[in-house]
Amino acid sequence: MTFNRQLRSLLIVLLAAIGHSGLGAQESEQLEPTQSSTEPAAKKRLDRSGEPQQGEASYYGKEFFGRTMADGTPMDPESNIAASRTLPLGTKAKVTNLENGKSAVVEIRDRGPYVEGRIVDLTPKTARKLDMVEDGVVPVEVVPLEIPQRDGSIKQGGAASDGD
């Protein structure tokens, strides 16, 4: 009977180890790591719905210029790229500063920001266009325009017909 308990305990430990090793994990693109300064890393599903999101935007600091982004390209501070924890890479989205109504279209090519409440990191060029450089962090609405789907198709988002 002791042998059976030891065997059962060993089996439980092995199953737990397999679960933590990623062998039982879902598709890596579907789940992305998230982290903030106040909470431990967690998993968050990619949002392919096309629904608008509201939260805060920040922008990349100089220490990120030229660093490799999640899509493998270097971060160009004079481009219209952005980082999102929940939108799929390749998503085109309209970002609107809710304090002044200014907006810009960006392409999601990186992951982040990893601060609670922030939903998008922008380049300095986009931050200037939204007139948010002085404030650093502003409330925004992010409306996906084109969202890559798992099957390779592109889903039109909520503001795709706005013409922006």
Estimate the helix proportion, in percent.
10-25%
Separation of termini?
A: 71 Å
Q: What's the number of helices?
A: 2
Query: On the 0-100 scale, what is the average pLDDT?
Result: 80
Sequence of strands across the biggest β-sheet: 3-7-4-6-5-8
Give the total of beta strands: 9
**What share of the residues does DSSP label as strand, in percent?**
25-35%
Structural class by sheet pairing and helices: alpha+beta
Low-pLDDT regions: 13-42
Order of helices and strands: HEEEEEEEHEE
Gross morphology is globular
Q: Using only CA atoms, what is the Rg?
A: 20 Å
Summarize the biggest pleated sheet. 6 strands, mixed, barrel
Written description of the protein model:
This protein is α+β, with helices and mostly antiparallel strands. The chain contains 2 helices and 9 strands. The protein has a 6-stranded mixed barrel. Strands 1-2 form a two-stranded antiparallel sheet. β8 and β9 form a beta hairpin. The chain starts with a helix and ends in an 8-residue tail after the last strand. 25% of the residues are buried. About 18% of the residues have low confidence.
